[in-house]
Amino acid sequence: MNLVIVESPTKAKTISSFLDKNYLVVSSYGHIRDLPKSKLGIDIENNFEPHYIIPLKAKKRVKELKKVSQKAKKIILATDEDREGEAIAFHLMEVLSADLKKTKKNNQKERDSLFERIVFHEITPQAIKEALLHPRQIDLNLVDAQQARRILDRLVGYSLSPFLWKKVAKRLSAGRVQSVALRLIVEREREIRSFQPQEYWLIEAIFLTEEGKQLESSLIKINNQSIAEESIRTQEESEEITKDLKKASFKIISVNKKETKRNPLPPFITSTLQQTAFSQLRFSSKQTMRIAQSLYEKGLITYMRTDSVNLSQQSLFQAQQWLKNNLGEKYALSHFRQFKNKSKNAQEAHEAIRPTIIDLVPKSLRKKEHPASKKIETSQEEKLYELIWRRFIASQMPEAIFDSTTIEIEGKGEKKYLFRCSGLTLKFDGFLKIWPKKIEEKEIPQVKEKQAVTLEKVIPSQHFTQPPPRYNEASLIKKLEELGIGRPSTYAPIISVIQERNYVIKNEQKAFQPTEIGEKVNDILVEHFPEIVDINFTAKMEEELDEIAQGKLKWQEVIRKFYFPFSKNLQEKYQSVQNQNFQEETEEKCEKCGKPLKIRFSRFGKFLGCSGFPECQFTKPLNNNNSFSQSLGSCPKCQKGEIIKRKTKKGRWFYGCSRYPECDYASWQKPQEKPQEKS
DNA sequence: CAGTGAGCGAGCTTCCGCTTGACTT
Asked: Are residues A438 and A547 in the same domain?
């Protein structure tokens, strides 16, 4: 028997169905070894030697893997073809090889020859069979690159977090990824706070042709100067222009007709699926991943944690056939449309996210039942499946074609003016038939060049420049991906961790706002550890990891070059940085002992504590404290307090009165805005 | 169904990136 080990049990099941009885396909469930959770696990004096353990959760799996590998003729490591996958294969080989030694095979060479490493990028019978014919050795340079990544993250996280416990509050955390995510949110909030809206005016006009046809136009140039935002600043300026326009003479100076095309978007990868599911379905990234996981386990979609837009030849062919058979030749392409990855750090171990059964059409388009349609159980699954199916099919459809017309009208008054009138009409919908998108169509009349037109109406309008929007889950993930920070498997957890730490909260519009504690932590990190929370830190790290993978650099060199200056700085900061706890006294007196109350600082933000601490342990919440919640209306019991969302010790959310403990109102459900009427 | 703090000492918190259930209400 040949043993094949992959990472995911679903993948194992699929691959097993492609192979005969001589192969047993099992899964490792991701990494089987890691650094210990309870301590650093890196011997810094001994050239950063990592101390790996098998975490409790993995023990059971490893035991089973050992058992089946004893009987195996060959052990084929078929983990993903990327840094993490190579490391998983390496650890599997180490652990299983050591186990084989215990029982029979004493000769190391003999044991090593049992192991084979294979890779594939799509789960099709051909791809698997092809891969089995071309085994290779484990790439130890790539494994080293993963080790460097792991060790660096551990050193940073397990050094900076305790620093925060000491200087700010317990249970806080910092890391290469989460601290940059927090920084983006804090900096955006400050841009918004300091934003000064600028007044500006836009001028539209309606012209009439000799035949009485209307042309709706916008002013784009004055004396050959483009009107950028803010160039007409005041109502006076706008009125002056209007006055001059009313005296001016106008004619059409150009009519430009052309065909424009719009291409379909590439099929989904993890980040774009999360973004689109948020914008169209209002799903959180966590929710999206949970639903996608379920669809994946039922064999309805390909793997949902991917950074690749590649599609298997087979799926491309099937999409083409489906389009020909169902929408007709004109909606199918004669070639396959392939997409290129945008992200530089993409590791492309998997395909794009697509349906596996192309004929399983979403409910809304289905003409007849499909045997697999009962596998889509919930309406959420149906909605997400529909997005994935449509996006994939649309990616293989022709461009949408528009006729666009641009008319330019020149006006001569005291100044010279240029107006533009543009029209857009859909000529062929192409992919828009499956992936609809709002496009503002506008028909405009046929006109001739040099034709004179008369000004019918001037419409000036007042505007104000807008601050940049707050990040939401979708836009934050998009930004992180652009910066190469985080991986498909971590986007959703990043979003969770910055909220669990009380660094940020989601407002009613589902946008992120930093809390007081979030800003505090960010400021400390930015001031004292600027290189770690530098937006480009990960990009620089990736460059070095690439060199390790290419065998140009030793991983220990990279770590040493980073660690010693970092560690020296950290030691200095332990000395120089003040404990951040506020000691500000207030006018308020302690309700228990009468001593003044002080503003104190904790993981949850500011609060009031008795200055007689620890003899007197009186505390009360500080008013206007944005640190962990937003107001959700007034308290239905006392009418004086605000309703705030809070967490129980067990982590469950509930709604309570902000005046607690004076008012003990609490409810699992969000209370209604209006107070209860008496019956 | 309701946190939080100093300092002493115990013991613990914490990172990122692979993967799924096994828990709770």
From this structure: no
CATH of the domain at A44: 3.40.50.140
Q: Evaluate whether residue A144 is within a structural domain.
A: no
The nucleotide whose C1' lies nearest the CA of A665 is: B1
The CA angle A471-A474-A478, to the nearest 5 degrees, is 90
DSSP one-letter code for A660: T
pLDDT (tens digit, 9 = 90+) per residue, A340-365?
988 777 878 899 999 999 999 998 88
Task: Tell me, yes or no, whether A130 and A16 share the same domain.
Answer: yes
Q: Within 7 Å: CB of A153 and strand B?
A: yes
Q: CA A41, C1' B12: Å apart?
A: 16
Say if A62 falls within a structural domain. yes
H helix runs in A255-312, sequence order? 270-281, 285-297
Strand B reaches within 7 A of the A641 CB: no
From the Cβ of A171, is strand B under 7 Å away? Answer: yes
CA-to-CA distance for A349 and A251, rounded, in angstroms? 60
Confidence of residue A622 (pLDDT cuts 50, 70, 90): low
Q: Which CATH number belongs to the domain containing residue A388 in this structure?
A: 1.10.290.10
Distance from residue A370 (CA) to nucleotide B20 (C1'), in Å? Answer: 29
Residue A150, domain member (yes or no):
no
Q: Which of residues 81-110 of A touch strand B (CB under 7 A)?
A: 82-84, 88
- Alpha-carbon distance A672 to A53, whole Å? 51
A303 catalytic? Reply is yes
Taking alpha carbons only, the member of A410, A403, A423, A427 closest to residue A213 is A423
Nucleotide nearest residue A494, measured CA to C1': B16
Query: Is the C-beta atom of A80 closer than 7 angstroms to strand B?
Result: yes
CA to C1' distance (Å), from A526 to B5: 25
- Same structural domain, A409 and A364: no
Among A261, A260, A266, which residue's Cα sits nearest to residue A435? A266
Instruction: Say which of A23, A200, A303, A417 is annotated catalytic.
Output: A303
For residue A26, the enclosing domain spans 2-138
Asked if A428 and A500 sit in the same domain, the reply is no
Domain boundary among A537, A567, A597: A567
A157 touches strand B (CB under 7 A): yes
- CATH number of A210's domain: 2.70.20.10
Residues 284-343 of A with CB within 7 A of strand B: 293, 297, 303, 305
Tokens in use for A586? 């207030």
If you write DSSP's letter for every residue of A142-164 in order, what string do you get?
HHHHHHHHHHHHHHHHHHHHHHH
CA of residue A532 to C1' of nucleotide B15, angstroms: 13
Q: Say if A291 falls within a structural domain.
A: yes
Residues A259, A293 within the same domain:
no
Cβ atoms of A303 and A296 closer than 8 Å: yes
User: How many whole angstroms separate alpha carbon A84 and alpha carbon A289?
Assistant: 20
Q: Which of A538, A567, A596 is a domain's end point?
A: A567
Same domain, A440 and A482: no
Count of domains for chain A: 5
For the ranges A15-19, A110-114, A305-309, A317-321, the lowest mean pLDDT is seen at A110-114
Asked whether residue A628, judged by its CB, lies under 7 Å from any atom of the DNA or RNA strand B, the reply is yes
Model pTM greater than 0.70?
Answer: yes
How far is Cα A121 from Cα A115, in angstroms, rounded to an integer? 20
Task: Label residue A661 by pLDDT band (50, 70, 90).
Answer: low
Nucleotides on strand B with an atom closer than 7 A to protein CB?
1-7, 12-21, 24-25
Residues 241-260 of A with CB under 7 A from strand B: none
Q: Are residues A21 and A115 in the same domain?
A: yes
| pLDDT tens-digit readout, A90-111 | 999 999 999 998 887 778 888 8
**Residue A532 sits in a domain of what CATH number?**
1.10.460.10
Do A414 and A333 fall into the same domain?
no
